[in-house]
UniProtKB/TrEMBL annotation:
SUPFAM superfamilies registered for this protein in UniProt: Periplasmic binding protein-like II (SSF53850)
Alphabetic keyword roster: Receptor, Signal
Family: Belongs to the UPF0065 (bug) family.
A Pfam family reported for this protein in Swiss-Prot or TrEMBL: TctC
Signal peptide bounds: 1-26
InterPro entries: BUG, Bug_dom1
Protein name: Tripartite-type tricarboxylate transporter receptor subunit TctC
Length: 332
């Protein structure tokens, strides 16, 4: 009887502990769930260039399917804030509240080139990389009725006519501009730069007869090349898109100039790591979605993924290397 009497208090105590444990576990689950409550409203994605370019098109492809993978089926709204070669839009991202509700679709120019200027108020360390989504080479294009048909034609023309060849880019001090400045240093040619607020406006000016050429990301030029209105002359980058497999890389012509343009999502540096992880994981899934891959294919590119950590290493390296180029050509 005594053993039986002793059993019930012990059993009751064990039961109480079990219930307490369940309660603690439930509370813990609720706390864990509190982090996953992000996002509870729409996210703003700032695109620092005009609508229609590669950066804008890639951003819209991802944003269009973001609600499929973001917690709580939240959506992403695109805001184009062009100007300052991408720095105006990225400055808005830096100054945004670090809560994960304002992020930017950045490219290498505003982050690793323009930040060497005292005129830009932010530095690369003011951002926290989320995910790289694209890397593309650049291509020099002319109108299809131009007498320039090959790299050799172009080189001969610009050597004989210093500063006569006008070329448009998506902005002063961005990858395309620095690429051409670097090329001029290594070949001795002189051409005239005309900056625009994106690759699309530069191509519009070229098609309208206001320029002799344009140096833009390959996805921006490929549709015009395929329809026959533009002719590709050379590519600066580490690889060729399948559509431009017969167009020479500068390195194939003995010119050591090969920067690609990366595009990726970034947040203000003080955004919590758990929020960045939610964004990374969601956009990685979107990047792998067949519908997004198909959209990227339509704009002439494909996903080139890098994790937050890998993306940070790319940024650090590009910032260092671009600083060397800028100093060598007297633009730092």
């Amino acid at each position: 009887m005594k053993k039986k009497a002793l059993f019930f208090p012990i059993a009751a105590a064990v039961l109480a502990m079990g219930l307490a444990g369940c309660g603690s576990q439930a509370t813990g689950e609720k706390k864990a769930g509190a982090k996953s409550n992000y996002p509870t409203k729409a996210i703003t994605m700032v695109v620092p260039f005009a609508p229609g370019g590669t950066t804008d098109s890639a951003a819209r492809a991802l944003a269009g399917l973001a609600n499929k993978y973001l917690p709580n089926e939240q959506t992403v709204a695109i805001v184009n804030k062009d100007g300052g070669a991408g720095t105006i839009g990225m400055n808005d991202v830096v100054q945004a509240k670090p809560d994960g509700y304002t992020i930017g679709m950045a490219t290498s120019g505003p982050i690793t080139i323009k930040t060497h200027s005292k005129e830009v108020a932010y530095k690369p360390e003011d951002f926290k990389p989320i995910i790289q989504v694209v890397a593309t080479p650049n291509v020099l294009v002319v109108k299809s009725d131009s007498p320039i048909k090959t790299y050799e034609d172009w080189l001969e023309y610009v050597k004989k006519n210093p500063n006569k060849f006008t070329y448009g880019t998506s902005g002063a001090g961005l990858t395309q501009h620095i690429t051409m400045e670097n090329l001029m240093t290594k070949t001795g040619v002189k051409v005239k730069h005309v900056p625009f607020k994106g690759g699309a406006p530069a191509l519009t000016a070229l098609l309208g007869g206001n320029l002799e050429g344009a140096l833009v990301q390959t996805p921006e030029a490929i549709p015009h090349i395929e329809e026959g209105s533009l002719r590709p002359i050379w590519i600066s980058g580490t690889f060729k898109p399948e559509e431009l497999k017969d167009v020479p890389l500068l390195t194939e012509k003995g010119v050591d100039v090969e920067p690609d343009v990366w595009t990726g999502l970034m947040a203000p540096s003080k955004v919590p790591d758990d929020v960045v992880k939610v964004l990374h994981d969601s956009f990685q899934k979107a990047l792998e979605d067949p519908a997004v891959i198909e959209q990227f294919k339509k704009i002439g590119t494909e996903p080139v993924y890098k994790s937050s950590e890998e993306f940070q290493k790319t940024i650090d390296n590009d910032y260092k290397e671009n600083g060397k180029v800028l100093e060598a050509i007297g633009l730092k």
